[in-house]
Design goal:
It is built from two helices and two strands. The chain is of the alpha+beta class. A hairpin with a 5-residue loop joins β1 and β2. α1 packs antiparallel against α2. The radius of gyration is 19 Å and the shape is elongated.
């Protein structure tokens, strides 16, 4: 199993918390260079995972269409392309 294989099973919230911890660790500046590179790469994988989860969630979000009287009449994509 690759070093970042566990990321695929993470929820958005868990992946975001892990990414925030990496940012904090790197900003502190007391992490050895080789470890900084490794956790930076993990951060990139976490960011990509969060992006994929957000795009999947956005694809599921729909906007409610209203009639002239203000009554719901259906749904449409939130951001039609």
């Amino acid at each position: 199993m690759s070093e970042n294989e566990d990321i695929k099973a993470m929820s958005f919230e868990h992946a975001l918390a892990a990414l925030e911890q990496i940012v904090d660790d790197l900003e502190r500046g007391d992490v050895p260079l080789d470890q900084s590179i490794r956790i930076y790469e993990r951060g990139e994988a976490l960011k990509d995972h969060c992006d994929r989860l957000l795009k999947a969630a956005e694809a599921k979000v729909e906007k409610i269409r209203l009639s002239r009287e203000g009554k719901p009449i259906g749904v449409e994509p939130l951001d039609p392309e």
